[in-house]
Amino acid sequence: MTSTANFLERLDTLRRLMAEADHILVGAGSGLSTAAGLDYAGEAFQQEFRPWIERYGITDLYTSSFYPFATEEERWAYWAKHIWFCRYRPGATPLYRQLHEKLMPYSTKLFIITTNVDAQFALAGFDPKRIFAAQGDYAFFQPASGSPKTLMDNREWVTLALKEIDNCRIPSKLIPFMPDGQPASTNLRVDGTFVEDYHWHRMSKRYGDFVRNAAQGRLLLLEFGVGFNTPGIIRLPFEQMASQFPDATLVRLNRDNPEPALPDLQRYISFTEEITSVLASL
């Protein structure tokens, strides 16, 4: 069954797969958070980042993450605003809460892998012990050098820095450093310095264990909004599992890129309808 089947038929099939599955593996990319209203270039961005838009000409929160600010005071003023906007401002969005409600009956057979760094799954009430955030979390700083493999919570710093932003700068005294005196950076995977700390490795192992335990059972691979930015983390492995495991089915919710890369994938269903519509109808 593919996206060409009737919408209601696909919904019925998804309900059955959820109920009958021994294991449900959720994979989530940026499309899910975008559907939830966390838009990196929308109206809220235009409003909150107007001083940066006017001064630096930034157009969205993705490309602006790589902007070559002239000073550390400017760079960290931007990041204080960015982290607050994406991590601390929204709280749990209604869409993630709705997803939690739909999946709660299956919570004991569920695991989540996500490339999103906004912690929406945890904020919505999913068990943190069942969430592997492979690409990091806005809530933490790490050593800019990548060593040692330790993280530092940044919420207190963000709150303080926001109050001190003036003309798109923060005071020099607020430039963040790690407890050992090293310069800090955000714990987001952008290069080889990304810190995979003890918690990251523990959750990576739990993810691997879940996949191994699910390999011979009835496995539902439920994929939300995963594109081609980092396809090797969720998109392609999910297709491989659906192809190689004896009783695994991939259900892909993706408006723009539903087609699998693997040819002749048999146990596969796609929804190109809006994620909000699918969850509301489920």
What does this structure look like?
- This protein is an alpha/beta fold.
- The protein folds into 2 domains: 7-36 and 93-135 and 197-281, Rossmann fold (3-Layer(aba) Sandwich); 43-89 and 137-188.
- 38% of the residues lie in helices and 16% in strands.
- The strands form 2 sheets. Strands 3-2-1-7-8-9 form a 6-stranded parallel beta sheet, sandwiched between helices. A 3-stranded antiparallel beta sheet has the order 5-4-6, covered by helices on one side.
- α10 (235-244) links the parallel β7 (219-224) and β8.
- α5 packs across α8.
- The two termini are 17 Å apart.
Shape: globular
The CATH superfamily title of the largest domain: TPP-binding domain
Count of distinct strands: 9
What's the mean pLDDT score?
A: 96
Gyration radius from CA atoms, angstroms? 20 Å
Q: How are the strands ordered across the major sheet?
A: 3-2-1-7-8-9
- How many angstroms does the end-to-end distance come to? 17 Å
Segments where pLDDT lies below 50 for 5+ residues? none
CATH-level-2 architecture of the largest domain? 3-Layer(aba) Sandwich
